Amino acid sequence: MWEAGLARRRIAVLLVAATVFALFLGTGVQRTLRGANRNQKPSAFSGDWILPASADDPPAPITARVLTYHNDVGRTGQNLEERILRLNNVKPEKFGKVGVLVADGLVDAEPLFVPNVTIAGRAHNVVFVASEHDSVYAFDADDLAPLWHVSLLGANETPSDDRGCAQVSPEIGVTATPVISVNGDDGVMYVVAMSKDSNGDYYQRLHALDITSGAEAAEGPATIAATFPTRKGQTTFDPKQYKERASLLLQDGIVYTTWASHCDMGEYTGWVIGYNAATLQQATVLNLTPNGSDGAIWMSGAGPAADAEGNIYLLDGNGTFDKTLNAVGFPMNGDFGNAFLKLSARGAKLSVADYFNVHNTGAQSSRDEDLGSGGALVLPDRTDISGKMWQLAVGAGKDKRIYVVNRNAMGKFNEQDDRAIYQKIENALAGAEFAMPAYFNNTVYFGAVGDSLKAFPIADAKLSTSPVSTSEATFAYPGTTPSISANGTSNGIVWAVEARGSDAGVLHAYDASNLAHELYSSSAVAGGRDAFADNKFITPMIANGRVYVGTSNGVMVFGLLPDDGRKVALVNEGGRK
Known about the structure:
It contains 2 helices and 40 strands. It has 577 residues and is mainly β. The chain has one domain (36-575): Quinoprotein alcohol dehydrogenase-like superfamily (Methanol Dehydrogenase, Chain A). The longest helix is centred in the N-terminal third of the chain and has 34 residues, at 2-35.
């Protein structure tokens, strides 16, 4: 009797377990795998299943966020929490184009990524995309379905025309990469949009968008307007003379905007304007060439960088530099054209805290060979062989040199030579830098115009004067801004977009430890499977097993392909493949 009762109890337990296991297979597995981007729900557009890339890939929690240009305020370009893409699975037979996020115009801004955003009562991993048609989109990063779309145009407005300049054409809307602030379950995206009305008036506005809906937050938008004192009175910000090319920076509760010209045409100067992130009230204004001219801040789309103390670093374009210096070595009239700059925001007021200018800065500006085409990168603190700690930043412009500055003593200006700078590497690059470098694992990666992608290691707190490895491919104008994916220090991959013209973009992936080892090239895949239309100044964004590349009409999405060779659903106009 006892044995029979035990047998019956065992059977009952097995039945219950079988029922629970069946329910688990039917629901829980799909949710778990979808959350880890391993098994996706049926495409809302095609009904096809996108299968996991490998059955032995364990689910992993999604923790990485890409809230700002090049991943962090130091602008290192590294995502160190990428657990899906690895050196052994990024290859043409396993990796390729998996979707398209369609937009209504050029996508010049780098896409951003936030996991676990609650939209309409459901949690989504979300990719945010902004276009030159003044649109902002939220897409589900797993199945690529659209979640919301908003226009930033006011009543009776259109995006700006190109202002007679082909740099951003045919229209100017959102050019700069936005920035996102996340606090618990709430999040706000800050984005600058340019437009014009039926009367021919132009507007630059800073919007604060709720990332769950796209609705305006913080009493936005704020119309960009500013004045700054000069020796003759004041200079006034004219919205039609500027575009916001450099990415936004959010630092210590202030959203910083920086302003570029249209093809160096007309009268312009170098503006930095900050807004309170909570209220969108103007917080601070600085003009870098108030008593001169030019000095645009554009950096080929890179954003101002910041260090742990809240100092801001940027490279200024060709413009007036006052060679007559005051008692502390600063330009007498406050004009800092063509400078590597450190800005202080102490007391909620921007000021130039330090700078470096090359000894022949005037000649460089006159022939448009300035630093302003490149972006600044704040390096992690380095220790030399004596044990001394150095705080450094690195940048390059159009003169083929790499400049490394000591952030605590940048070098200022000497008309005779540049010996006061921490390090200057002559002819380090084969061409001009219309991009910015990336940093990973004690190495800095540059991709100048007409040059290979180059890896410069750091030793004794100095950048190597020659690269330790280079790519076989070279990159025509505008060169390339690399991005890094890695799991800590392992599986480091350098991603770079090559513009070949005629809408023929190429995505490259390299072993970060040896750039001669190319893992993947979209152009090497037969039949044009991974082809896409290129765009200028594009920085790839990597998050949760996917690589996002801005194009002339949206964002191309790359990732691991289905193991069984089934086609991957490609989303396009009208939701058809």
